[in-house]
Amino acid sequence: MIFETQRLRIRLLTLNDLDSFHKMQSNPKVMQYADGEVNDFIGHQKELLNLIDKYQITNNDFWIYAIDHKIDEVFVGTLALVKDNADDEIGYRFLEDYWNKGYGLEVCKGALAYCKKIGMKQLVAYCADENKASIKILEKLNFKVVERFNTAINQLTETKYKIHL
């Protein structure tokens, strides 16, 4: 376990997560503000194996964790803590069944506390301007706008946010 919140547990991904991971990654609504690409089962299996393999890399700067519901240990999404050039970036993704339950805010609060505990000084987040739910979370947590730009991948306007821990 990496850390936990009142309702959620953040842990390393395993192959047991494949079915839920695939369901999440193949939902166009989940992926619309990410890279927008929906893959097949084999593609998601390779992606999950690649993420799991990264746990073994010394000085790994690309951590994607599973988010479980604490009581029943059901996979509900992923949390990303990755190095983005000089910045440490936070990101999250949830299965659509778990939207609008306050999990995004809860996991981000827990992640901020965890990142501060392990010595990070600041975090950035990138958010599509159309993703109102995530903007609301970032604003509640006092992330500040750094810059706005257009993405080449999905042709959306995104905003870079930053918070000092």
From TrEMBL:
<dbReference type="InterPro" id="IPR051531">
    <property type="entry name" value="N-acetyltransferase"/>
</dbReference>
<protein>
    <submittedName>
        <fullName>Acetyltransferase (GNAT) family protein</fullName>
    </submittedName>
</protein>
<feature type="domain" description="N-acetyltransferase">
    <location>
        <begin position="8"/>
        <end position="165"/>
    </location>
</feature>
<dbReference type="GO" id="GO:0016747">
    <property type="term" value="F:acyltransferase activity, transferring groups other than amino-acyl groups"/>
</dbReference>
<dbReference type="InterPro" id="IPR000182">
    <property type="entry name" value="GNAT_dom"/>
</dbReference>
<dbReference type="Pfam" id="PF13302">
    <property type="entry name" value="Acetyltransf_3"/>
</dbReference>
<dbReference type="InterPro" id="IPR016181">
    <property type="entry name" value="Acyl_CoA_acyltransferase"/>
</dbReference>
<keyword id="KW-0808">Transferase</keyword>
